[in-house]
Amino acid sequence: MRLTLFATLLPIAFGVVGCAETPRQKAASIDRETADALKLAQALQGYSPGPAEECIPQLLRRYQTSSIGKTILYRVDNRLIYRNDTTGCQQMPFGDILVSQNPGPQLCRGQIITTIDGISRVQTGSCSLGAFIPYRKPKP
Description:
Elements: H1 2-18, H2 23-43, E1 48-49, E2 55-57, E3 64-68, E4 71-77, E5 80-85, E6 97-100, E7 106-108, E8 112-116, E9 123-128, E10 132-136
Antiparallel strand pairs: 1-10, 2-7, 3-4, 4-5, 5-10, 6-8, 8-9
């Protein structure tokens, strides 16, 4: 009985250890997160956050989008930026295109979006949108 239990648990233990991050990978991850936080702070400098919104209109506006880590910024104009912290869109490669396929006129929390390579048009990933946090620049 003990031998069978040991033989069963041994591969599981090695599988868990084999998936652990190395110290170098942890350091790189922390460095990337720190760099992303700095980029976000710079992009949103001078803007004040408002209450989170579940959806934003998609058809009436054209957004300039940029991604920083897992965050997508939807720039409406010089006075309004929507911040969306996604689930699953970590470090989108430069040049990838965000594609949303929804039947309605809005982008909403929980919606799945895909990323495709800008040259080959091959799908490179997908993620779920979070709440939209409006950042407004105060009027002078």
